[in-house]
């Protein structure tokens, strides 16, 4: 019974934190890009983007910068929930594996390693057919205590 109560309290705390982050994100690059949270907790998160004409490059596929932004935003979301401190992206590695033209893209991110003020994560972007579009890893640094 106590475990269920602790879990419920933790979930409620995460939801309050997500609501605060959503409020802070209004008018920022996050909202301009058009991402939405699918789920998020201190170890893993997923975001979704409905790829539209504005997300495409000149050859009609989703721009690599959009995919990199999704990777960075999903990993950053996990870090913000896990740390509750100001963090910055220290490094971002991206591998473009397939192209996407439009439709829903989902990016899932998870923590791989944490030591001191540095957190390393990995993330994937998949399309509606569950094809792996991009894979990336990121290193994030806590900048305040």
TrEMBL record:
SUPFAM superfamilies membership: Thioesterase/thiol ester dehydrase-isomerase (SSF54637)
Keyword Transport attributed: no
Record keyword Amino-acid biosynthesis present: no
Residue ranges constituting the Thioesterase domain according to the UniProt record: 60-133
Keywords, ordered alphabetically: Hydrolase
InterPro entries: Acyl-CoA_thioesterase_PaaI (IPR052723), HotDog_dom_sf (IPR029069), PAAI_dom (IPR003736), Thioestr_dom (IPR006683)
NCBIfam families: unchar_dom_1
PANTHER family: ACYL-COENZYME A THIOESTERASE PAAI
Name assigned to this protein: Thioesterase domain-containing protein
Organism, scientific name: Paenibacillus glycanilyticus
């Amino acid at each position: 019974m106590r475990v269920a109560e602790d879990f419920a309290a933790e979930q409620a705390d995460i939801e309050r934190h997500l609501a605060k982050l959503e409020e802070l994100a209004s008018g920022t690059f996050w909202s301009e890009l058009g991402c939405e949270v699918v789920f998020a907790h201190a170890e893993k998160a997923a975001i979704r983007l409905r790829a539209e004409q504005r997300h495409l490059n000149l050859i009609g596929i989703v721009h690599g910068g959009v995919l990199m932004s999704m990777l960075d935003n999903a990993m950053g979301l996990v870090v913000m929930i896990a740390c509750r401190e100001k963090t910055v992206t220290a490094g971002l590695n991206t591998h473009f594996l397939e192209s996407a033209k439009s439709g829903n893209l989902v990016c899932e991110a998870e923590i791989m390693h944490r030591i001191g003020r540095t957190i390393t994560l990995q993330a994937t972007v998949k399309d509606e057919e569950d094809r792996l579009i991009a894979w990336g890893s990121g290193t994030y640094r806590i900048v305040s205590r």
